[in-house]
Amino acid sequence: MCLCKKNKAEVKPALVIMAAGMGSRYGGLKQLDPFDDYGNFIIDYSCFDAIRAGFEHIVFIIKSAIYDDFVSTIGARVSKFAKVDYVLQELDKIPEGFAIPEGRVKPWGTSHAILCAAEKVNGPFAVIGADDYFGPNGFKIIYDFLMEHPAENEWGMIGYDVMNTLPPEGFVARGECAVDENGFLTDIVERKKLRRAGENAEYTLDDETFIPMKAGTCVSMNFFGFKPALFKEIAAHFPKFLEENIPVNPLKCEDLLPDAVRRCLASGKYSVKVLATPDKWYGVTNREDKPVVVEALRRFTEEGLYPEGLWK
Q1: At the N or C end, where does the chain have fewer CB atoms within 10 A?
Q2: Which pLDDT band, with edges at 50, 70 and 90, does 124 fall under?
């Protein structure tokens, strides 16, 4: 990939949306599940917010099994307002010398997904997942950051108050962010069992002892702003990932985007500015999460944040 010098600030950022997940815990494809009376998916709202913020190019990372349905629904709607590209994240997109483990159906992870999008992205880009509602402010914040910080090594991340990401009950996983005095990310540590605890949060490492997490703690929801240098970094590491992980976890190992960010930070070559958003995040990990998101989107529409019917 060419990393030739050019005025990146004059290249408008693209939005890359990871939509190749299997939805095993949800019990179906969240990417193609309607969340309002007009048949819009949760991803429609992200695309709407992104286009409203200034994005003119959207790249969907999907799998071939949903290509036709995806293009005829969300793709048809969004392509009227922005340039749309599709890339396929498939198991066989791996370096020479490696074989797909017998019985493997799970994608290789979010870092691999981003690597698959390299062919369609030639400038700064933001990254989100297809299954989540991020709120409108983050898209404008990350768009402006990418336009105003053209250097290849200057990256950004939308940071959420942990309390704006937690359901009323139950455990979730969140990436707790360490941020220095200048607002730059220094580390992301996954808290796999995190829950509300009154006005604050708490997590456990052993299912017995709970560690408090204060309201206002920054967490990552995989909403980043990158430059094409990331592709080079992921490509260089991916063979090592396969070599180390296929022998021990052939069916489920994943190269995850936060891990790639941590490696790049550790190299000392890149910075990640944490950009706070006041928005509340909504996700649909499990089927029972859907009514909460549907109600939130209905309320936002009634309040005028979105037009009735969205694209209509």
Answers
A1: C
A2: very high
Nearest to 84 by CA among 95, 94, 71: 71
Tokens of 208: 């017995």
SS3 273: strand
Per domain, the residue ranges of the chain are 13-152+220-255+276-302
> What pLDDT is attached to residue 26?
43
CA dist., res. 248 & res. 118, Å (int): 28
Question: How long, in residues, is the chain?
Answer: 312
Cα 149 from Cα 261, distance rounded (Å): 18
3-state class (DSSP) for residue 63:
coil
pLDDT digits (tens, 9 = 90+) for 51-82: 999 999 999 999 998 999 999 999 999 999 99
pLDDT tens digits, 194-208 = 999 999 999 999 999
**CA distances (Å), 199 to each of 168, 171, 174, 214, 278, in order?**
11, 16, 17, 8, 17
Distance of alpha carbon 150 from alpha carbon 6, whole angstroms: 9
Residue 79: C-alpha distances to residues 6, 50, 136, 238, 247 (Å)? 28, 13, 19, 32, 42
The three-state secondary structure class of 154 is strand
- Minimum mean pLDDT range among 77-81, 152-156, 308-312: 308-312
Asked if pLDDT for residue 4 goes beyond 90, the answer is no
Amino acid 21: pLDDT: 74
Cα-to-chain-centroid distance, residue 216: 21
CATH 3.90.550.10 fits 13-152+220-255+276-302, yes or no: yes
Per DSSP, helices labelled H in the chain are: 42-53, 67-70, 76-78, 110-116, 136-148, 229-245, 257-267, 290-302
Q: How far apart are CA 22 and CA 65, in angstroms?
A: 11
